Amino acid sequence: MRITGKVKWFNNAKGYGFIEREGG
Q1: What does the alpha-carbon distance between residue 23 and residue 9 come to, in Å, rounded to a whole number?
Q2: How confident is the model at residue 23 (pLDDT cuts 50, 70, 90)?
Q3: How far apart are the C-alpha atoms of 9 and 4, rounded to whole Å?
């Protein structure tokens, strides 16, 4: 599952991050 956009930050320990969507 991929999300198009820039990753604002990624927590490698928890394995998730916030995605800033393009045009949003």
Answers
A1: 18
A2: low
A3: 14
- Comparing CA positions, the residue from 1, 3, 2 lying closest to residue 24 is 3
pLDDT tens, position by position, 2-22: 655 666 666 566 656 666 666
Q: What pLDDT shows up at residue 19? A: 63
Strands 5-11 and 16-21, by their bridges, are: antiparallel
- Encoded tokens for 12: 């490698």
3-state DSSP assignment of residue 13: coil
Please enumerate, as own/partner, the contacts of 17-23 that have beta carbons within 8 Å and a separation of 24 or more. Answer: none
